[in-house]
Specification:
The structure is a single chain. By secondary structure, the chain is an alpha+beta fold. The longest helix is centred in the middle third of the chain and has 10 residues.
């Protein structure tokens, strides 16, 4: 587990983690072939920003959340989104560009 100063509330690139839904299980970090995610310990200030269900998850599961640490590496494969049992991850699918 890494302690980082970057906010878990940042919206990065093609993949986003909803910190209110994430329970910090780490399955996204395990399944990601590109190493896009990192588990971080959230600060007291970030915990206060969470919704009531988000605060409950922190209280029950601990102060860890998944964050998008390397958005530029995301290939939008969707493995993380499919595996997330909390539905906390959304991946913007890449759309093909029509050629003229």
């Amino acid at each position: 587990m890494t302690v980082m100063s970057r906010s878990v509330f940042a919206a990065n690139g093609p993949v986003r983690v909803n910190p209110n839904s994430c329970d910090g299980c780490g399955s996204c970090a395990e399944v990601c072939p590109m190493g896009v995610f990192e588990l971080v310990t959230i600060s007291e200030e970030e915990r206060k920003k969470l919704s009531f269900p988000g605060k409950l998850k922190v209280r029950i599961k601990g102060n860890t959340k998944s964050m998008v640490a390397h958005p530029e590496a995301c290939i939008a494969c969707g493995k993380c989104e499919t595996l997330c049992h909390e539905r906390a991850i959304k991946v913007e699918k890449k759309t093909p560009v029509a050629r003229a």
